[in-house]
Every structure is written in C-alpha cells, then in structure tokens.
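Record type: monomer structure entry
Structure origin: computed from sequence
Chain ID: A
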Amino acid sequence: MNKRKLPIGGIQTFSELRREYDVYVDKTQHVYNMASRYKAVFLSRPRRFGKSLLCSTIASLFRNEKEIFEGLAISKTDWKWEEYPIIHIDLSGQNFTEEKDGEGVSAVIERINEQLDNACKCYGILVEKSDFIGVRFSRIIEEMSRKINRVVVIIDEYDNPLLSTINQVELNKKIREELKGFFSVLKSSDQYLRFTFITGVTKFAQVSLFSGANQANDISMMSEYCDICGITQKELEENFANEIDGFAEKYGGRENYLAELKRYYNGYFFTKDKISVYNPYGILNHFDKEAEFTPYWSLSGTPSFLLKYLEKKDVNTVEIENAEMDAGGFADYKDDSISLFPLLYQAGYLTIADYDERLGTYKLNYPNIDVRKSLAEFMARNYSKAEVTVMKSVSIRLVRTLLDGKVDEFFGLLKPYLHKVDYSLSSKITEYYFEFAVSNIINMLGLVCVNEVHTANGRMDSVIFAGDYIYIFEFKTDKLVEDALWQIEDKDYASIYADSGKKLVKVGVVFSRELRNIVEWKADV
C-alpha cells in the first residue's frame, strides 16, 4: 500500500491542507449553499470535528483564493469570485478563568483585541486598541467596508470563555455581558457585513448572549447540513479506498474491516435523519497509525468544562443511557446554566439515536465504542474515582473471562475494583448506582455494556456484548439472587436476542448497601 500524507494532528488551515496533503473530503458544496443563501450562520459541533477547518475554508473563499478550490464542488457552481476583508476571531485554546478579580474578563478583551490588531495590520486599517472592544470592533468593520469591501466576520469557538468558567457563576456572568456587547455590533453593523459565520460546542448563541444581534441561521440540526462536519460512509469509501484496501486483509477482508470501522468510529447523528458520520480525528489517526483500533478521540483530551460541570451539578449518571429530550432541549439554557444531556451531546459524548415523530422527541445514546470507552474512563478517573491505571493491569483477564463465558472468574476479578468506586455521586445508594459502577468498568474495557434496555415486557438492567456471548444482568440490592433470575425469566428478557446466534447468559447479581459491593451472583446459560 502506498502510504499517503493524511491531515492528522488537527490541520486547521484550508490552503495548507489543499497544497501539502493528499486527501481533502470536499465540503465546499455546503459552504456555497450557506454563503449564497444566508447573511449569518451559526453551527454547533463537538470538538475535533473540523469546525476550525471549516472556518478557514470560508475565509479562503472570501479572500478569493480561487486556485485552491479548483476541482472541488464549489468550482462547478455559479459562485461570484470576489475578495472581501476578513475579521477572524478564534477564542479556542485559552483558559479564561480568573486568578484575581476581573482577570478573566480582561483576558477575553485582550484576546479579542490581539486578533482585531491582526485584522487591522492585514488590511492597513488603523483603529486604536480599546477596553471597549465592541466600540473598536464596530469602527474596524465600518472602516474596512468603506476602504475595501463589505466585511466577512468569522468567530470560532465563541463559547470557550463561557465553558471554561462554567463553574464560576459571577465571572461567567461578567464574561457573558462583555461578549454580549461585542456581538451586538453584528446587528448595528449589518449594512457593512457580507457574511458572518459563528461556531461553538454549545448553543448559548441562541439565548441572551446574541439577543442584541441579528439572529444567525442555526444550521446545527438542519438535515441538509448533517454532514457539513465529519465523514459519511460514502465519503470514507471514496476518499480512503487506498487505506481501506491496504488494511482490509489484516481484519479478514474489506467487509469485516468496514464493519469494524463503523462500530468503532462512526455513529454520530446530528439531525433526525439517518445519516451518520465518522469523527475525522479518530478515523484519520487510525489509518495513519497502521490501522490500530485505539480511542484516538479520547486520547486527544477530555474537555475541562465537562468535569467542571459534573463537579458543580448533582448529576444522575445512570440516566445518561437512552436519555430523551425534545427538540427545544438542545438550546434550553438559562443565562448561567446548561443541562447535562445537551452538554454531553454537543461535547460529542452522546448523539441522536432515534427520533419519535409523534412526540417530537429525540433519544440520545453513545455514538460508538471509542466514545463509550472514553466517557467511562473519564467518569472513573474524575467522578467515581476508580483507579483506571490499576484496573488496566487485569483488564485483559476481565475481558477474557467474558469472551470465554467464565462468569465466576469475572466476578472474582471485578469485586476488588468495585471497592475503589466512590459512590458519593449519589446520597441515595440504590441498585442503579451499582449498575452504573459495573457498566462503567465494562465500557472502560472496550466492550459494550448497555443499561436500561427496554423490551415489550419490561426493562433489563444491563446487557453486555462480548464476542460469542450476550450477558443479561439483573441487579438487586439486599435481596435474594433468585429474585433477579426469576425476573429475567418472568419478563422473558432473553427473547429479543433469540435470533442473534449468540450464547445467552442470564445473570442475577446482588449488592450489599452496607458492604457497597457484590455479595452474590448466579448465572444461567
């Protein structure tokens, strides 16, 4: 196989990618559609999905860098190639938390002023730096428009200052007010603007932050733009045929390899339509690292704002599995708060799993094994306090016991690690929290453990998928293990997997509140 130069490592500059790398997944038809139809656009997507590259693509388009778009979809449209001045504000990559009173707000002002300085130098505009960034922003836009052309404003990761201070209510409020004044310029300067594009992880943009500005067209959940970031199955097979064909034999042929890629890295849905995408960061690193199935997305770092949120809120982690919410819930934020499920969705840990058209509700779940495993490790490391590094010393043995159907050996290895779980995440110890602890450990191992699985007759506590085996777990607290097994039989839970071709193992598990651990188990194959 001819190893190609892939844009790994977070290549965010469109011109560099086009000139120096071998692959670009063409998203310029979407760019054309946005820029032709709308005056202002807002897009919410998780980290590592290519938002910054999209911003750079838009900037290159409006700089009239026509030559680097040759052969792409937009070159075949009626786009009118014309140069516009660009103001590009990037608020990513900096922690705006304060050490002293007011420092966090000052850091936001300084960061924006630096990037306004760059825009002024680029276009020969002189507008002095000011503590009133809104006033300066307005003057720069007007001056650029008067001297050159209408202005294109691109704001990348607009919400980073808010997310980095999510656990500091007063500072968060001060930053919000500062940004609100800055963004209000987009309304007062409308006559001088050609196009505005705003990205972020969360959708604070649709509440009070932008209330003084013209409301941007939110394309985040529009069907047409479901794949504006990420790689579809068709794009994967067309753009990466070289890599797929080259590594297919390693995984038992092309069909098996594609199925494993999909299971590990695909599964992100951003609209109610059934079009899923791969996370670019994970799939590109997989191909570059000799096709090793590793959770590259999680290795790139967990967003600090998620830990801050979990520390601040009383979160029922069991409810993460199969969470449900209506469409309005994705942006149902107050000035200083955000709900867990939309935050996990927009951070990339949950995705749309189903849509109920009658009720207008969405069901959320983990997109793939990569994310399921990474969230489990995050929860264990930062929330339930399980010692992941110690766990890994026996992880292979734990996985092997499940793959081999050795239930007794599995529980013998598992019990010591349940002692390490901190159940202080709930003041009320119930079987649901033991269930979370067990499923979290299973997911860390890279297997799939699904909680609260609904059937026609009831709801299974947990189902573990391990090679040739499917384990159906029923948890009880301070009760008889026979009660758990009887419930599995009485509700006929196993019937939904009868045609799976797998060996079904029904497992009753009993926890002790006093001992905070498993005290009994029994399996029926």
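Annotation 1: Residues 384-524 form a domain with the Trna Endonuclease; Chain: A, domain 1 fold (CATH 3.40.1350).
Annotation 2: The longest helix spans residues 103-123.
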